[in-house]
Amino acid sequence: EITHEWSDGIAAEELRIAVRDTSPDKHWIIFDGPVDALWVESMNTVLDDNKKLCLVSGEIITLTAQVRMMFEVSDLAVASPATVSRCGMVYVEPGSLGMNPLIDSWLSGLPESFAHYAPAYRDRLRTYCYDYIHNSVMFVKKRLHEIVF
């Protein structure tokens, strides 16, 4: 049913909660997923020096110094130069993504006492982690319901 009444989205609600907090704690609002040209362009005013989000309802939410926003995207195909120029960029090589680079990093940080053992143990542990952790994550993704809010 179309009521023509304004209804807030999760981004507006989370930003309101963050700007109301008077503690010195930082608040990170993270957008993880593809960029849509329709909504990302409306973020330009919040990303520039004004730091004001102008909602369709007419409400303006002004960000405090404790509020940070991050966009985690796979590409910038539909993001305009105006939006991109307002953001800092960090590029991560596709080969650095996933579980295996995290496992390798963890293994390289093991204590020296572990390195004393034969490298074969480290290789075996790497193989077990690659096989079992990957399979466990795939099981969770396929068989369990993930709650996202």
UniProtKB/TrEMBL annotation:
Entry-linked InterPro entries: DHC, P-loop_NTPase
Gene Ontology cellular component list: dynein complex
Alphabetical GO biological process terms: microtubule-based movement
Protein name: Dynein heavy chain 1, axonemal
Domain of life: Eukaryota
A Gene Ontology molecular function term of the record: dynein intermediate chain binding
Lineage: Eukaryota, Sar, Alveolata, Perkinsozoa, Perkinsea
